[in-house]
Amino acid sequence: MSKIKKILISSFTFVLMVGFVSSTAVGQQAQQQAPPQPQMQQPQKTDIQVSDKELEKFSNAMDKAQTIQQNAQGKMVQAIQDEGLTVNEYKQIVQSTQQTQQGQQSQANFSQDKLEKARSASQEVGKIQSQTQQQVVKAIQKQGMEPDRFQQILMAIRGDKDLQERYQDMTQTENN
Length: 176
Known about the structure:
By secondary structure, the protein is mostly helical. It is 69% helix and 0% strand. Helix 1 crosses helix 5, helix 2 runs antiparallel to helix 4 and helix 2 (52-82) crosses helix 6.
């Protein structure tokens, strides 16, 4: 899979991590509001300037961030499975809980035991996400970038065809 495809696939997840957004609402009381989920926006042409050197730093930071993210995903899956749930069951419980909290009627009905397992898994997943977010920020900074600038470039690559091509050319050259 090309680097640009990896970026586009992982960018939403990365936006969530950098934005401190929790992926679950299991365990919150019904009267609490779940944090708003960011919506995917259509890519738009951006007017930011990115030098080749900065693009190279971005590429290195992206590689590190993706590695950290992949490791974290494995840990999150393991945390869910350690509670005796499949990832699919966990997702269904989380979705059902979020629908209920938003005042929507949920079609699913889960046992108290499953809900408790999901609640426990959610706590562990939240810890992993927090650690991952901190690791990603450190990795970005270690490459000589600030997280805000990294995020700007990430969004620009998603929306600027010319920048996408420059990035692809650079990463293909690095891989050869």
